[in-house]
Write a structure and sequence with these properties.
Order of helices and strands: HEHEHEEEHEEE
Helix content: 25-40%
Structural class: alpha/beta
Number of helices: 4
Distance between the termini: 26 Å
Oligomer: single chain
Number of strands: 8
Radius of gyration: 17 Å
Length: 184
């Protein structure tokens, strides 16, 4: 079942007409973990200068449940040869950026970096409000628990988010949405 799920995901990424998908399922099926792994896989490799955003029911859920609970835990367990250079701490709180770390002090002038030394991609948690991503361009937007919005109009937020991954009549990213089966 997981293999077929990942085949479906890959098909959506390759289809120029597909801007994303919504995966609905019961609790404990690993929806958030899978989307976190897909997000991390896509954003930790070329091309450069791409952004990824995470939203959930609340900003706190985006940070604690998805980002720190899924994405950061997966990133920490990657072998060193899969980890791009990052300027984030070993336990990032709200974002993960893949830029070379700043070097300060006397030794800074002796260090030389190539352009290839940094990926310049980032993953950020954002508030769950409707217009939070308005004006942004993203390679991936993960919206966890899209169907559980007490204070947010999910339809309006989706109308804003779809233009984050679709610019100038061209697909530039994907919306990866999940929710558990509950009354929407």
């Amino acid at each position: 079942i997981d293999r077929e799920d990942f085949y479906f995901t890959e098909y959506c990424f390759e289809d120029p007409r597909c801007l994303g998908y919504l995966k609905i399922g019961s609790r404990g099926t690993g929806k958030s973990s899978k989307e976190g792994a897909i997000l991390l896989e896509e954003i930790t490799r070329a091309p450069k200068r791409r952004k990824a955003f995470i939203q959930s029911k609340t900003e706190e859920d985006a940070i604690k449940v998805v980002f720190r609970g899924k994405v950061v835990n997966i990133f920490k367990k990657l072998p060193d040869f899969f980890k791009p250079v990052t300027d984030s701490t070993s336990d990032p709180k709200k974002s993960l950026s893949f830029f070379r770390p700043a070097i300060r002090g006397k030794g800074a002038m002796q260090v030389e970096f190539n352009e290839e030394d940094e990926l310049e991609n980032s993953i950020e948690c954002k508030a769950s409000e409707e217009k939070t991503l308005d004006g942004e361009t993203a390679a991936i937007v993960v919206v966890d628990e899209i169907g559980k919005c007490d204070k947010v109009d999910a339809y309006e937020r989706h109308n804003v988010n779809r233009f984050v991954v679709y610019r100038n009549n061209k697909k530039v990213g994907m919306l990866l949405c999940t929710t558990t089966v509950e009354e929407m």
